[in-house]
Amino acid sequence: MSRPIGKSPYVATGRIIKPYSVLGWVKIQSLSTNPLRFDAGNSFILEGNERGDRLLLEETKGHGGGLIGKFRGIDDRDSAAKLSGKLLLVRPEELGESPEDAFWEHQLLGLTVETTEGRRLGEVTEVIETGANDVLLVSGEAEYLIPMIEDAIQRVDLEAEVLVIRPLPGLLEE
Fold first, then answer.
1. What is the DSSP letter of 94?
2. What architecture is the 3-95 domain classified under in CATH?
3. How far is 112 from 119, CA to CA, in rounded Å?
4. Are 69 and 59 in contact (CB under 8 A)?
5. Phi, psi of 77 (to 5 degrees)
6. Please, which residues bridge with residue 63 across strands?
7. ∠ at Cα 32 (39, 103), nearest 5°?
8. 40-45: long-range contacts, CB 8 A cutoff, minimum separation 24
9. What is the pLDDT of residues 27-44, one digit of tens each?
10. What residues contact 40, with CB distance under 8 A and at least 6 apart?
11. Paired strand residues for 147
């Protein structure tokens, strides 16, 4: 799942881990569920260089369960090392439409969370990936962990910026 950057207009889709070779290749950690995100020809905004040129991905390869990539103009280990730890950003509209009955993380952050009875719980402040299903961290007068499952999530209205939940037994106990 791509990660939003606070109130930034960008979404992180990957992170450059470290240089991989003397020819400018880098190890990349994908933060995206889109299998095509790191195809050759895609471009990214480098964290800290939001107003500058985009990085163009020239080539990628799977490597040890991860990914290595070569960006245009990054031709030696020193240049690659300067990218270490930086996020690879895109604009939200570049993510495309979310899959049916699914949402991008940046769409959920900041939504007001209410119960089916109209009780306001707070706002979604984090989406936690657990493996089985995502869990929303809702912060208000208290903090709640809301599983992103059909039994709990009743309605997501992105236009109204509201997410309505049905409290399952024990879910809202403090």
1. G
2. Beta Barrel (2.40)
3. 11
4. yes
5. -60, -40
6. 66
7. 125
8. 44/13, 44/14, 44/88, 44/89, 44/90, 45/10, 45/88, 45/89, 45/90, 45/91
9. 999 887 777 888 999 999
10. 57, 58, 59, 60
11. 135
Instruction: Give the other-Cβ count within 10 Å of 70's Cβ.
Output: 20
Q: Beta partners for 16?
A: 28
Q: Letter for the amino acid at 96?
A: G
pTM to 2 decimal places: 0.59
Please state which architecture CATH assigns to domain 105-165: Roll (2.30)
* Domains of the chain by residue range: 3-95, 105-165
The CA-based dihedral angle spanning residues 62, 68, 72, 78, taken in that order and rounded to the nearest 10 degrees: -160
What the block records as the tokens of 36 is 């095509």
Record the tokens describing residue 150, joined without a space.
């059909």
- Pairing type for strands 134-139 and 120-129 reads antiparallel
**Of the ranges 96-100, 117-121, 124-128, 169-173, the best mean pLDDT one:** 117-121
SS (H, E, C) 98-167: CCCCCCCHHHHCCCEEEECCCCEEEEEEEEEECCCCEEEEEECCCEEEEECCCCCEEEEECCCCEEEECC
